[in-house]
Amino acid sequence: MDDLKYGTRNKRGDWAPNQPVKTAPLFAFPPRLKAVLKWLPHYFFPWNMIFAASAVAYWAWVIPPVERLQTLGIEWIAWLYVVNAISVFLFYGAFELHLYVFKRQENRFKYNGRFPADQKSKAFWFESQNLDNILRTFLSGVTIWTAVEVAMLWAYANGYAPWLDFAENPWTLALIALVVPIIHEFHFFCIHRLIHTPLLYKWVHSVHHNSVNPSPWSSLSMHPVEHLLYFGTAFYHLILPSNPVLMLYQLHYAGFGAIPGHVGFDKVEIGEDKLVDSHAYAHYLHHKYFEVNYGDTLIPLDRWFGTWHDGSAEGEARMQERYRRRKEKLAVRKARVGIGEAAE
């Protein structure tokens, strides 16, 4: 498939889409009903439906009976960890095999033309991005994912979280299901800005940003503190009138949903003529430039706070202008400090 029909490739082999990234029309003002209706199928398919279906499957076949959940037990906690680990291994591994091991697409639609396995760096354990990312995913990521899952299931089983029945509250729960992605993006933007503060970035978030050229296993390669903040999105369901299935959907949206933003390819080829959009470009630009696109495209939070980069020349100019203004402020601040010290 010719990816140059959809984008351009520079001399280094890096690919970029022709069209700038667009935010969802959901929060546009004045409201654009026609645009929202046209966009809605993309809201559900394929990613959100995959994560929602996985939550239903977990509740049906993985989660123990409520009676067992009322008491913490090593057997069912270990069972959940094993299932989560296997699920991550299969889901993440499928993308890794297809795109990075077998390289069935070669570098078609790949933002960064190089592959992480071809580069060694002392920033990673054993100087290997893949090995570092995999170990962090399973040692910390899946562990904290499971811990949050256990805490929430225990809370539901013991009446500490509001549990609505689907049969009696279909419309309320349908509304909560619809806003699960919105909750995730709001939460992600807030914690993301927090961990980009200098101290937390140095000791916490820099672990994730070591993967400047992200791949599937980079998705959950984080410091344990960031894992706890990230999966803490499930704790909103301690307050919301919700249901354990929707709480699992929230967790799966975070856990499995990290993949699209880090897959490293704009489109995944399925067969010879079908493409699935990853919608990864906005987050790839965050990994590339660090201080843009703290959220994603569902809620235009970066537009509102002045940190949006859509991949266009105008977006680049806005970013550079923001950097220039910040440098000027720092220079003025240093000059004032120097004057003060000289006066003393």
What does this structure look like?
- This protein has 344 residues and is mainly alpha-helical.
- Helices cover 57% and strands 4% of the residues.
- It has 2 domains: 3-300, no CATH class; 312-344.
- The strands form 2 sheets. It has a two-stranded antiparallel sheet. Strands 3-4 form a two-stranded antiparallel ribbon.
Question: Layout of helices and strands, plus pairs?
Answer:
Blueprint: E1 7-9, E2 15-17, H1 33-44, H2 47-61, H3 66-69, H4 74-101, H5 129-157, H6 170-194, H7 198-209, H8 224-231, H9 244-255, H10 258-262, E3 267-270, E4 274-277, H11 281-289, H12 301-305, H13 313-343
Antiparallel strand pairs: 1-2, 3-4
Helix pairs in contact: 2-9, 4-5, 5-8, 5-9, 6-9
Mean pLDDT: 96
Strand content: under 5%
Rg measurement, Å: 22 Å
Which outline best applies?
A: globular
H/E series, N to C? Answer: EEHHHHHHHHHHEEHHH
Low-confidence stretches: none
User: Which structural class should the secondary elements be placed in?
Assistant: mainly alpha
The rounded distance between the terminal residues' Cα atoms is 69 Å
Strand neighbour order, sheet with most strands: 1-2
Domain tally: 2
Largest sheet: 2 strands, antiparallel
Number of strands: 4
Q: Count every helix, treating DSSP H or I runs of 4 or more residues as helices.
A: 13
Helical content stands at 55-70%
Keywords: Membrane, Plasmid, Transmembrane, Transmembrane helix
Protein name: Desaturase
Subcellular location: Membrane
GO molecular function, one term: oxidoreductase activity
